[in-house]
Amino acid sequence: MPIQSVNPYNNQVIEVFEPHSEDYVQAAIERATLQFSSWKEMSFGPKATLFHRLADILEERKTALAETMTLEMGKLTAEGIAEVEKSALVCRYYADNAEKFLKDEILKSDHSKTFISYHPLGTILAVMPWNFPLWQVFRFAAPTLMAGNVGLLKHASNVQMCAQAIEDVFIEAGFPNGVFQNLRIESSKVEAIIKDDRIKAVTLTGSEGAGSAVASAAGSKIKKSVLELGGSDPFIVLDDADMDLTVRAAVKARIRNCGQSCIAAKRFIVVERVYDEFAEKFISFMKALRLGDPQDKMTSCGPMASEALANELLKQVEDSVAKGAKVLLGGKRSEREGAYFDPTILADVKPGMPAYEDELFGPVASLFKVKNEEEAIALANATKYGLGASIWTQDLARGELMARKIDSGSVFVNHTVSSDPRLPFGGIKSSGYGRELSHLGIREFVNIKTIAIN
Q1: 3-229+429-453 maps to which CATH number?
Q2: Cα 123 to Cα 202: distance, rounded to the nearest angstrom
Q3: How crowded is residue 166: how many other Cβ atoms within 10 Å of its Cβ?
Q4: Which residues, at least 6 apart from 24, have a Cβ–Cβ distance to it below 8 Å?
């Protein structure tokens, strides 16, 4: 069945792709397998040169690549340019640091010499999402390939123009044929590929359901998997927070990428002493956001990535309201053409409501009032998710102490949750397992081999 790229700004079909045939897929896996035997032996220097060249190309093409993201999934062009620049950054980061991260590590033992040696596994499959169609791929590819593995990409069906563009820049940068390949396939084909003996591990960024399916397939063949799944990140506001700074950050944390981010702040937990002030300013700032053409520099919030996603979000909001949630702002689809959703704030959110139990993947914020920081911590942890969290206070020692009590993969004090090549990234509970980025990320898909010599 053909795969369509649809512009969510006007719901017009941009391009139609034919899925790769089974013969093509098998040939691609075989190319990867054969190329691995030589790629793994290449020293870090030549690999680094290729990644620096790739970063140069990304930076040269950043406007065009950003516009492709805008067309396919509605990202603001300005945000798209920043995403391309960040993708170039992660390429340079691992080009410069991979050798240091993977050097032999000497250990003390009863043997005359003991050390850890790191070795690539082989062909790694990456199942990637549409919301950050370049960044998610490059944060996988840079460490994985610099470690000596080769990669296969199964990208989301609605961003196949982006997927092709990514493969093209790898080719233009001079990477050997088979080191990185895009597989244009339907999700139903993924399980068989994971179970192929030539595939050594798999990583997925996506939904909880997709993660469960991928983990199950990998587990059935005793293969390594890394999952970065959904989140319902708490944004905790204490009574001594700098309110103007905090509210501006809150809007940014909820609305970036039209709220379609796993690490977007989704639950705003505010102590009662400053709740009314925060709520008033939060509503005012959210109301001032300008919906419009994502290519227009004056637009604050573009369309969601598809009509289906916008309608799914509407159902979650309506179900929550039917169960007692109060709409402070928005609560509906925009009347304009395209996959738009009005910036929304819900209050009186209780257990049993989608706004409490599930991830709302769009421009909808849930607002909670708590008595004190102990109640804030309890509410922050009362979720199946555990990806990120942020705490807003002028008492940094207090913020650090609270951060240690939050059940999540990362906690930021007085800063929105973000990913950085230098910092480990990943979650716990239903937000997944494993880590990307930093020195930990490059060690996910290697054999951590202990060598002991008497």
Answers
A1: 3.40.605.10
A2: 9
A3: 23
A4: none
Pairing of strands 432-433, 410-413: unpaired
- Whether residue 101 is predicted with pLDDT greater than 90 in this model: the reply is yes
The amino acid present at 119, given as its one-letter code, is H
Identify whether the C-beta of residue 251 lies closer than 8 Å to the C-beta of residue 396: no
Question: For residue 418, what is the DSSP state?
Answer: -
Residue 369: pLDDT band with limits 50, 70, 90: very high
Compute and round to an integer the Cα radius of gyration of the chain: 22
Q: What pLDDT was estimated at residue 88?
A: 98
Question: Is this model's pTM higher than 0.90 or not?
Answer: yes
Question: What is the Cα–Cα distance from 198 to 193, expressed in whole angstroms?
Answer: 9
Between the alpha carbon of residue 28 and those of residues 22, 94, 172, 429, the distances in Å are 10, 25, 18, 34
- Which residues make up the CATH 3.40.309.10 domain(s) of the chain? 233-413
**Catalytically active residues, by annotation:** 228, 262
User: CA-to-CA distance for 142 and 92, rounded, in angstroms?
Assistant: 8
| CA distance linking residue 232 with residue 355, whole number of Å | 10
What is the rounded average pLDDT of the residues 403-422?
98
The continuous run of DSSP H or E covering 272 comes out as: helix 272-287
The DSSP result for 18-69, as a single string, is PPPPHHHHHHHHHHHHHHHHHHTTS-HHHHHHHHHHHHHHHHHTHHHHHHHH
DSSP 75-114: --HHHHHHHHHHHHHHHHHHHHHHHHHTS-EEE-SSSSEE
Q: How far apart are the C-alpha atoms of 137 and 141, rounded to whole Å?
A: 6
Residue 1 has pLDDT above 90, yes or no: no
The number of angstroms, rounded, from the C-alpha of 137 to the middle of its chain's C-alpha atoms is 9
Residues in a beta bridge with 114:
107, 452
Residues of the chain with CATH 3.40.605.10: 3-229+429-453
Instruction: Return the CATH number of the domain spanning residue range 233-413.
Output: 3.40.309.10
